[in-house]
Amino acid sequence: MKARQKRLVFVGLAVLGVTAAAAMALSALQSNISYFFSPSQVIANEHPADAVFRVGGLVVANTLSRQPDGLTVHFNVTDNAATVPISYTGILPDLFGENQGVVARGRMGGDGVFYAEEVLAKHDESYMPPEVAATLQTAHAEGITGPTEQATAALRAATESLVTGGGVGGGVGR
Amino acid sequence: MNIKVNWFKYSAPSAFYPLAGRLIPWLTAAAALLVLIALYWGFFLTPERLGGTNPQKEYYRIIFIHVPAAWMSMWLYLVLAGWSAVGLVFNTRLSFMMARAVAPTGAVFTFIALWTGAFWGRPSWGTFWDWDPRLTSELILFFLYIGYIALHSAIDDTRRADRAAALLAIVGLVLVPVIFWSINCPDPNQCAALHQRSSLGRIEGNILFAMLAMTLGFWLYSFATAFARLRGIILTREADTAWVSELLGTGGAR
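Above: the input entities. Below: the structure tokens describing the complete assembly.
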């Protein structure tokens, strides 16, 4: 029995240590991981100079223009605080459009234009047919914090606890 | 809990072997039924187009395989680590066997989640793969499953293999919250990712039903395959015992 208690303590400590490591990793991720930079960060020169990085934001309406060569497009990307002009030559993803979230990978040109090598479209987690979405008015700009975002987050948290409390096994993994 | 009492009763491999055998056909049938219902519901009773800020056309239906598989990949890892911890603490043979039996199913679901995610990412995002936090951490989870299985098979002595692999499984637990919060952190600006966040509350009812039915189907399938694998493991490890000889009718032959 004594040996078993020792092992229990050992495994408990291991789990505790792993949890602490996870917590530290998560807090490190939150402050350090920059999958993409927001236009505000780019304007504030927080991005790496002379290196490839990603810019993420919303395509500003009425800024999308196709150049005469037929392949190059210019558009502006915003986080509702700052705007960065982007130039891209290539095929755009299906979901690309004005007011849609995009992530562009490339480098900053000396002229203040971001020359993208790759443009990816983001889509949000709402899976609603048009009529339902229209009634609920849930459409919101992805990745932008505001009063609506906080309200939906609160609503989301409430519904989630309701749904996951339903005892479906996958709830933990979600 | 009642279940706990049952597990103690069936914690002897010789007692669990026939029980698993009796459960497998029922679990398989229920899993197949649920998967068929979910596929039918997902393909025929859900909206054709998505609206709002998510203008995906028919291809959002990959969600019915992708999300349940991703959920199972994380859940089965918790199961794997849980049985590993129980085995380490109580030195119970069946717990280690259960952990070993669950691992391949978890690896398969992780692979399915990554694979279907690639097929979903190509039409919607515009790329099969990107080093996004969610995608990267899920890939590491796949390597972790493979690592667990590989470490277990690399050590000849079963008891040492059990304990070493169990430790790896517990250390790997660090990854599960990272995967979960890589897209679900409280402030959306802090976890900038390509992968969308997850929110069951913003999914249309029919889509959600098909997704949850599929998850339950996958879960029962996991039980069925893990039990089938477990029976094989029990027979191999207990090959020298009287009850196995009796069962196989070999009359005590080694």
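Note for the figure: The longest helix of chain B spans residues 205-237.
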